[in-house]
Amino acid sequence: MTQLEIPTHDEHGRRVQAMFSDIAHGYDRANRIMSAGTDVRWRRKAVASLLIDPQPDGAGATILDLCAGTLDSTLEIHRRYPQAQLIGGDFSAGMLDAGMRRIAALQDPAPLAQITPQHMDAHALPLDDASVDAIFCAFGVRNLSDLPLASAEQLRCLRPGGQLVILEFFRPSAWTTRVFHAVYNRTVLPVVGWACTGNLDAYLYLPRSMAQMRTASDYVALLQEHGFEQVSVEPLTFGVASIVRARKPGGSSN
Fold this sequence. Notes:
It catalyses: a 2-demethylmenaquinol + S-adenosyl-L-methionine = a menaquinol + S-adenosyl-L-homocysteine + H(+). S-adenosyl-L-methionine binds at residues 70, 90, 121-122. One of its GO terms (biological process) is ubiquinone biosynthetic process. It contains ten helices and seven strands. The chain has a single domain, classed as Rossmann fold (3-Layer(aba) Sandwich). The longest helix is centred in the first third of the chain and has 25 residues, at 11-35. The chain has a seven-stranded mixed β-sheet with strand order 3-2-1-4-5-7-6, sandwiched between helices. Helix 1 (11-35) runs parallel beside helix 4 (93-105), helix 1 crosses helix 8 (188-197) and helix 8 crosses helix 9. The chain is 47% helix and 19% strand. The chain is α/β, with parallel strands linked by helices.
């Protein structure tokens, strides 16, 4: 399904887009090694409550996995809600291509029937207003150059009462977590990333994106300013990562 990369929001977006397409072939392997598999458990926990009062299998629901990359999280969402219609959205053609090859290799037609990959810029989602029941994003918001604009787009596309779930490395506020991030990001992350992908620059950029990311509390305030409600934070693994959940006002669940 290789296509030309879509236009992106700005020059930062174009650089990040090219970087992720270049490391797509080894991205999942690097994540597994660097986290010792913890990222799998984080994703499973984050998607477990993605839909509010759903049918057990997610029938009738439409879910957007934003910044879906190689569709790692999209597959996890499919396992939890096998009848939901899933959109795996990302601005990197290389990442989505790698993800679809991975799904095809499973020799299971079910994911292929339920997952639609779609090239998109998170700052201008090509979706109708109030068209999705939930939006999930794992380790993607820190790469967005205009987080307020992206948050407004997410609110626009959610149906009333729909949920936004973000799994992210927010900038830590506790000094112990800051020290851990600093040491890990300057040693393990670039070495493993370079070994798995051959691209050292990408794994020097990623620590910088984490350091420049908002704290979880700052991000909560931003979501509230843009109209989200019931915003909560769940720290994971001593605060190394966090799950942020937020709701769009309205719907029968309010």
